Amino acid sequence: MAKNSLERYTHYYERWASNQLSRQKALADLHQMRTVHMEKLSDIQREPESQLKFITDAWQQIVECRRVLKWTYAYGYYLPEHEQAKRQFFEYLQGEAESGLERLHQCAEKELQQFLSADGPSKEFIDFHTKLAGLTGVTKNYFENLVSALENGLSDVDSQAACSGSSSKNGGSSKAKGGKGKGTSRVGGSSKNVDSTGMWTCEYCTYANSKHSTTCHMCHHQRR
Question: Where's the RanBP2-type domain (predicted)?
Answer without folding.
Answer: 196-224
